Amino acid sequence: MSTSYKKYEKYIKKQGLKGLLPQNLPENILNRMLIEADGLDSDTKETPSASFILLAILSLMNGKRLKSTMKLNIKEEVLMENFNVYIISLRVENSYRIGELEIGEDSLPTLKNIFNGHRMMNIVKNSRN
To answer: Does position 50 have pLDDT exceeding 60, yes or no?
Structure first.
């Protein structure tokens, strides 16, 4: 088990599921997830060994932190749709953090709506960029 994975697990254990919402992710975990997302987008085999995105999505879908003995029944199309929505949320959060976008507080994802691909978001392109 890698050191970064152990730190990720420790973070989830301490912060709970709310810590997995993009706006609550520390910079290092957000960046790691964005690297994973880029790897998925380019179909490269160079994604990190432990998928932080997959662990986050499965935990959020399950409503609790995953443990090694848990079994989940998830339809593949639902999992893929949730991957897409979560990755979009990660990219929007990153654009906000680097100053490209402004996001209304009411547009931030919650535990209840993180996977709702139809949720409305108030996003404005930052005029500085």
So the answer is: no
pLDDT tens for residues 25-48? 999 999 999 999 888 766 666 655
- pTM equals 0.85
State the residue range of the domain holding 84.
3-90
In a domain, 12, yes or no: yes
For residues 106 and 20, the model is more confident at 20
Whether 72 maps to a domain, the answer reads yes
- From residue 79, alpha-carbon distances to 41, 46, 58, 123 in Å are 16, 21, 8, 26
Q: How many domains does one find in the chain?
A: 1
User: Is residue 37 included in any domain, yes or no?
Assistant: yes
